[in-house]
Amino acid sequence: MSGSIPFYQKHHRHYDRGYRSKETESKLSQYQSSSRYMAGSSTSTTSRSRGLKVSSHSGLEASRLSPVPKRAKPTYLAVDKENQIIGYVVPIFRGSQEFATGFSDTEEARVRETAAYMARRNLFTSGLEMERSEQISRKEAMRESAERISLNKRIHDHEEHFKRMNEDSLMHPPEFVIKPRSHTVWEKQCVRLHCTVSGWPDPRVVWYKNNVAIDPLANPGKYKLEGKYSVHSLEINRCDFDDTAQYRVSAMNSKGELSAFASIVVKRFKGEVDESLPAPRHGPVSEYGINFQTHIVDKFGVSFGREGETMSLGCTVIIYPALHRYQPEIEWYRDDVLLSPSKWNHMHWSGDRATLTLTHLNKEDEGLYTLRVTTKSGYETYSAYVFVRDADAEVEGAPGAPLDVRCLDANKDYIIVTWKQPAVDGGNSILGYFVDRCEVGTTHWIQCNDTPVKFSRFPVTGLVEGRSYTFRVRAVNKSGMSHPSRVSEPVAAMDPADRARMRGTSAPWTGQIIVTEEEPAEGIVPGRPLELQVTEATKNYVVLSWKPPGDKGLEGVMYYVEKCVSGTDSWQRVNTEIPVKSPRFALFDLAEGKSYSFRVRCCNSAGVGEPSDPTEATTVGDKLDIPSAPGKVIPTRNTDTSVVVSWEASREAKELVGYYIEGTVVGSNVWEPCNNKPVNATRFICHGLMTGETCVFRVRAVNAAGLSQFSQESEPVEVKAAIASPAPPYGITVLECVRDSMVLAWKQPTFIGGADITGYFVDYREVIDGVPGKWHEANVKAISERAYRVCDLKENRKYQFQVRAANMAGVGIPSLPSDTFLCEEWTIAVPGPPHDLQIREVRSDSLVLLWKPPVYQGRDPVNGFYVDIKEADAPEEAWRGVNNKAVEKTYLKIKNLKEAESYVFRVRAQNKAGVGKTSDVTEPVPAVTKPGTKEIVVDVDDDGVISLNFECCDMTPDSKFVWSKNYEEMTDSSRLTLETKGNKSKAVFKTPGEEDIGIYSCLVTHTDGASSSYTLSEEELKRLLEISHDHKFPIIPLKSELAVELLEKGRVRFWLQADKMSANSKVDYVFNDNVLSQGEKYKMNFDRNTGVIEMIMESLTPADEGTFTFQLQDGKATNQSSLVLIGDVFKQLQKESEFQRKEWFRKQGPHFIEYLGYEVTPECCVVLKCKVGNVKKETSAVWYKDGREIKADEHLGFTEGVLKLEIAQISKKDSGVYEVVLKDDRGKDTSTLNLTDQGFKDLMNEVFSFIANSSTPLKITSTEEGIRLYTFVSYYNDLLQVTWHYKDSAIAFSDRIKSGVVGEQLWLQISQPTEKDMGKYAIEFNDGKGGLRRTVELSGQAFDDAFAEFQRLKAAAIAERNRARVAGGLPDVVTIQEGKALNLTCNISGDPVPEVTWLKNDREITSDDHCILKFESGKFASFTITGVNTSDSGKYSILVKNKYGTESGDFTVSVFIPDEAGGKKK
Known about the structure:
Shape: extended
Strand content: 35-45%
Largest sheet: 6 strands, antiparallel
Number of helices: 13
Helix content: 10-25%
């Protein structure tokens, strides 16, 4: 085996060595068991005689591979003309012929028969032929030789083949070969989900639980993930109840992503099974022999989407009986083509709901979607159409995107791309299309054609053999380019035969080995190509195709194409640079209208062969014509939102792709496409239309050449449901029976055919001994009621009945025959059953039930009814009464319903004898308020007319409003007038009165029960009449009554505000019944937009005392408001007006905005200040105190309009009257502040308050005299009054207890304290208000600590006073002449008298003749040296000591000699 496997093949499942060995072993085993009886050349001859040929086949499963061998390799598979594999071919090479000879004809026949027999028997036996074959050694030798030769060459072929493979051709998205299965397990069991995934590159597999990725590290020991040889598993250890979930495995690589789902249900052990879960299975359950009933509910409807959006279609599937683990087969179809999961289609089955998600809508997704649910008992389907509109164009007016891009006739370097034209051209003709290609594995798109092509088919050349490509197409018109189409499926550029071999699987064993002889043919020039023909010709290109020469064993053959203009003999080679590898070629740049002939030559390394036979002359031009316009278009009504459009097919249409339908609303002239994907039929249902609109349709055909002309426009058709004969009635019952007649009742058909039912026809037949007779007509003329008396019957005979409904479309089919009824006279005393039950005004919590009284009254007249109710799915025992007391009316409003619950009802009648039979049960009715439901609205217009109004949004053209009073249709028009316009109806009361009290209801026919009611009670009528009166005689509403206010300059403003008034409104101003007019005294203003009315007077005089009135009028609406100004009220207003007038004049010059006042700063400074206005530079401000001007050196300020005077430390001398005078040429103003007596007292109290608030808490300290309590203030004033308290009583001061002030400290001294002084102390600051008190507790530990400290300080003071001291008298330094006498004396104090000691140079000295030391009277110590000498120099000290302490005094004695002193001076 030569060469090595490329890296990208080593990990691919098609090239795994183990996988290949298994594949080879399988084929080898099959080969061994069947080839012992094979013959040689005769078999080969037989094969050739049957027209068999040899083709190359890999023998391995490999898809989408594109080998590029330099030379064709021998093959060993035999195929027929249809390329179907029918056997193996074993060639005989030189030197091996001895194994193929020596058999007689009889033996050959026997071998062939035995081989065929053994091939069939191999399917069911386990190697018995192997034992028999060992008896024939010659056949064994042949088998072994053939095996060895075939196996070696095939392996060599594959190795060489795959070494040159392009990686891109191997890439394909993930695919689940085996999907995970759902499991149901008990708690604490382990479960494993496993799957097999294929794909290249190797997909990355992720497991999810309820869409949350599973992380084994986050739950150690819980989950175990494994993946080996494309088999992946998830193991869940010791399952618990929380592991019940849906699990998803997602496989993803660069080509896409795919998911598979499985569910795990964990159940509890016996005795603990949760009732909400299915019961555990006991033994196997088989679906065989069970008849399944399948119901598809909650269906998706006709859907509309736009390109690029995501759409989900889903249905709920109910299968009965529901067997555990039995799953139906769920299939989705589009236009009857089975859909498979892909990146465009995601399918999901949850166990009861099937969902198809279209992840990215394109027009290819438009079509009829069908869900097919298959069980063992059959299948059920449901279908609905999905429409996909074009996405918004990037450029206005650009066409829609092409669709359905496909690749045809793919070859080594050539592929034909086809597509379908879009339905939307953007309003301008499409100029052509551009084709783009992209190599798989890249994102780079390359445009294939330089100029747009109009034909919807284009040959793409210049491809690289072995590479895979995807394609897309864009349309262009003069406005711009469309969006690109959806990309095509990937296709490989390779020989079709190679593609067929790689898509196929290993050849099935046929029981034949065909032996041929093959000669290697190296260096041979190839022959002529065969069957050259023009397969396609347009004005843009011509496509040629041919077959390779029939020679065998040639090297890789390529081709040259030549052309010749008709009428000449000049052949021109088209592809001079690069030979063609494919037996296909597209020629471009041919002259349109000219005729050409073509021929092809083969070439290889040995040379160029002879040309093929030339084609016939071909004229360059479109061979395919645009189809002719379709014929007559006929629209017919279908539903309220759809129309069926039919048309005659195009008569001249080759290769027809389909038809596009367009529609427009009459009068709009705007045509919209009804389908965006061509339809092949001549009938189409156009959905999404508006009910009631009139539409016109047209059709055009499309093929590869383009779009045809539009057909003629259809006749207009109104969009509404088609009229058909009604469905049969049902529920036939007997209401009364006498001797020769019976009264029947029935229910209205569920489908009335789109038109009102005009009547019913009743038939009857006699039933004798269970055998029914012929039907007879009971009525010739249609009856409108759903009850009818059938006469001329025979007593004690049995009859059956049937009913047919009729409308304008005709008479419908009859109902099913009724039950058999006996015609005998009823004699029961109680009434018969009520009938014709109807339900109206369905809301989420209520509805109204109507019925008709029984025909059979019983012995006495009916005097009441009972209504019963139950849930629709509840058992019969659940019936319960709605009303405990019988109602006389034939209607009842049923309340307190549960929203979304379905209910059924029945009615019973009663008379004096008792309660009669129950009526038929109604159909189930869900208590749901339908969207768009309206209620009756009462309205009173401007003229006072009362009306009831009802609006319906779901009306059809045939709908009508039916008004009723007390649920009986109103026929008397003397009380009400009915008006209907569009979807609104109105009932207008003419002269409302007590006769009109009742329940008014309105029903809209041909709707889904649109109805409402309104109860007009006596109180409601009274309220409406009051509103009507107000509207007839309206009053202008006032937002505010007439009021008065003062303006600047003392002017008086009277005003009120009404609602906005019209331009024609007017106001009269009245004073004491006299109308006032505009003038100097009165200024009137009236703003009609805001409704503000005002009258302004400059001033008030005594003559203005009285009543002011404003009278308003706006059309027929009037109003007035008055204000009385007399007595004290008028005087007070006049006084205030005069004051404001004076104030205005004062403020014309410099004035005080805020008059003089004071404030105390935190520093206890007093600031007098005032705020001034309207000042200028010349304005002067002068301060006065007690009439004397305050000099400028005082603290005056005049900034920002504020004048200030600061008094730093206020005292009694600062009391007085302060005044500030402002003055300039415009006038002057004065402000005065009295700070005397009470004014000064108030000021000082505020100062005292600041001082008190600044005080610190009382603290305790000790002195040598006793204990001191103290507090600090930020500022102390001599006028401050404080009081000390002991146990809440003021302290009487004495020599032992004193108080005082030191700086900012206030203290209380307790001398020689004792335990009697313990208690609560307080200092109270008097600020003229509540004062401020600071307290401290002098007791307990606080007192003990303070007292101990006092004792310590007292002892220390005594010691300090009595300790030994040197009072003074000693100098620091004494300088004395030798021979002189030195006498020093100092004072000594201390008690007891201290001991005195003298030291010299820190050594004690004693008194002698030279140094005399004395201590006299205990006070004086003397130091005397009679005659000093130099030895007396030194440091001397006196040390005094008693029991309280020691003290010393130091001095230095320096003795000098006179001569030395003189020398120093010199």
